[in-house]
Amino acid sequence: MGVGIALLVILGLAVVVLLWAVGIYNSLVRLKNEVDNGWAQIDVQLKRRYDLIPNLVETVKGYASHERETLEKVIQARNMAMSAAGPAEQAAAENMLTNTLKSLFALSEAYPDLKANTNFLALQEELVATENKISFSRQFYNDRVMMFNTAIEVFPANMVANFFPGKFTKREFFETTEAAEREAVQVKF
Fold it and tell me: Comparing C-alpha atoms, which of 137, 149, 141 is closest to residue 35?
């Protein structure tokens, strides 16, 4: 009779440990999926930004046709940003694109008719709204990355994470690397 009770206690403890490990595993999967969702939301907003840029360039072309170099740099930066992979490369490409957009908006100072164009103003307003959404999406993503990275590093969840190598690996933050890129984009018309 004593052996049976000891066996039941051991079996009960094994079930509790298994349920505990399953709970931790499920929370890690949930956090991993939140990180992936955060990245997808950045992607959605960046796509929206990329779709706006050709319209903006076309509008500027009508007023500043001899500013071809600036327009080409904007398109080149857009293409580089669209092909970037991973948070670090994406952040660098996005910062380059932001800088080229600054020079595009600076053209409006030299062309008062462009500055007053309703299409240009609407596109500029839409781009500002999109930049705000991108900023929010980056913040959401980075918050989720921090939660996920913390979860896979703290005890006892790190034991479960390490039990599944490759499934729960540290994620990169979406951040700028240069001090100048940390400054807010200033659009003046």
Answer: 141
Name the CATH architecture for the domain at 25-182: Up-down Bundle (1.20)
Per residue in 121-157, pLDDT tens? 788 888 888 888 988 999 999 999 999 999 999 998 8
Distance CA 64, CA 39 (A): 36
The encoded tokens of residue 147 equal 């939660």
Q: Give the predicted TM-score (pTM) of the model.
A: 0.72
**122 touches 150 (CB < 8 A):** no
Integer Cα distance of 137 and 85 in angstroms: 17
Distance set, CA 154 to CA 55, 135, 148, 169 (Å): 48, 29, 10, 13
3-state secondary structure of 156: coil
Q: Annotate 77-95 with DSSP letters as a single string.
A: HHHHHHH--HHHHHHHHHH
Question: What is the per-residue pLDDT across 7-35, written as a single tens digit (0 to 9) for each?
Answer: 889 999 999 999 999 999 999 999 999 99
Yes or no: say if 71 and 57 are a contact pair by the CB < 8 Å rule. yes
Domain parsing of the chain, residue ranges: 25-182
- Peptide bond before 156: cis, by omega within 30 degrees of 0? yes
Quote the tokens at residue 188.
Answer: 């003046």
Tokens linked to 103: 């020079």
